[in-house]
Amino acid sequence: MINPMSLENQVIIVTGAGQGIGRGVAQLAAQLGARVIVNDLNEDGVKETAEQIGGNARALVGNVADPDFPEKLVKFALDEFGDINGLVNNAGIVRAAMIHKMDRATWQQVIDVNLTGVFACLQAVGTYYRYQAQKDPDSAARRAIVNISSDAGRRGTIGQINYGAAKSGVLGLTMSAAREWGRYRINVNSVCFGMVETPMTETIRSDKFADKYMAQIPMGRMSTPEEVAQPVCFLLSNAASYITGQHLSVNGGYHIGF
């Protein structure tokens, strides 16, 4: 029986793959048969991810906030593997401060990476998808984009207004792209995570904030990168061929909305 979540012979780009969620997604995608382009600004981290995956991975160091980088990313993927079938827009940073203490530079740094960087990579990959669809309208090739958002974008967050605003913006970006590109059979979805066991969350695990957060999770624990990688790979696969413009919450019940 064919695995409906198989990514056999698919080429998947994962940004922010030097650790945590991005590394987990890249590893699972490769296990499901994909060839993976892994990107991160952290050279050591992204090379380690590629080494762990082996011959089906290629690493490209770079910052998604660099205006020239998304085009380089697309070219690198095409040069290495000849096609692109999936993009996981995962690269993100946190720069925390209360609203009254947040300076413009701190605000802009997070917006540049977590929102503008997502848009730029989506635009670059989506432009390639659109060209391929117009060139061969009957092609059954998979063309998917998964944008990584957060519960912070759905219900707000204290001390991270820049992060919350960026992640909320990712939801609007996802819906707009899905409407615009549906005619080309390009699926664009987002996944909203809660608290995941990653290096990014290590700094708050012992704080009172973490205790309060954990108390609001019905399942009573954080998720692992391996757990959150599975729904991302599902949305990349043919099993999700009729799903677009949606926001999937993977949070142990922390945010439940109708």
Automatic annotation (TrEMBL):
Q: Does the keyword Repeat apply?
A: no
Has the keyword Acyltransferase been applied to this entry? no
GO BP field: fatty acid elongation
- Ketoreductase domain: from which residue to which, for each copy? 10-184
What keyword terms does UniProt attach to this protein?
A: Oxidoreductase, Plasmid
EC code(s) of this entry: 1.1.1.100
One GO molecular function term of this record is:
3-oxoacyl-[acyl-carrier-protein] reductase (NADPH) activity
What the entry lists under NCBIfam families is as follows: PRK07231.1
Name the family the entry cites: Belongs to the short-chain dehydrogenases/reductases (SDR) family.
What is the protein's given name?
A: 3-oxoacyl-[acyl-carrier-protein] reductase FabG
Q: What is the lineage of its organism?
A: Bacteria, Pseudomonadati, Pseudomonadota, Alphaproteobacteria, Rhodobacterales
